[in-house]
């Protein structure tokens, strides 16, 4: 669910760059604040999920990399 929000495809990045350009030179774009918080929330959830897998589920031990 979280990986599909603001994917790394060109059109998403181009749209965000356009909003940043408009915000910098013309007027205040409130949508940028929401995009920023969505990105922070997305990567925080992904980071916490990785932390959970590695430290609490012993994911590395289950891989048998020895």
Please explain how this structure is put together:
It is built from three helices and no strands. The longest helix is centred in the middle third of the chain and has 26 residues, at 31-56. The protein is an all-alpha fold and 66 residues long. The mean pLDDT is 77. The chain has one domain. The protein starts with 9 loop residues before the first helix and ends with a helix.
List keywords for this structure.
mainly alpha, 70% helix, 66 residues
Largest sheet: none
Radius of gyration: 17 Å
Please provide the ordered H/E string of secondary-structure elements.
HHH
Low-confidence stretches: none
Q: Total number of β-strand segments?
A: 0
**Count, helices:** 3
Rough outline: elongated
Can you give the mean pLDDT? 77
Strand proportion: under 5%
Total domains: 1
N-to-C span: 34 Å
Class by SSE composition: mainly alpha
Task: Summarize this entry quickly.
By secondary structure, this protein is mainly alpha-helical. It has helices at residues 10-25, 31-56, 59-62. It is built from three helices and no strands.
């Amino acid at each position: 669910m979280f990986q599909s929000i603001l994917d790394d495809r060109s059109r998403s990045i181009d749209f965000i760059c356009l909003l940043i350009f408009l915000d910098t030179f013309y007027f205040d774009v409130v949508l940028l604040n929401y995009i920023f918080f969505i990105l922070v929330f997305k990567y925080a959830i992904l980071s916490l999920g990785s932390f959970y897998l590695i430290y609490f589920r012993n994911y590395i031990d289950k891989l048998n990399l020895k």
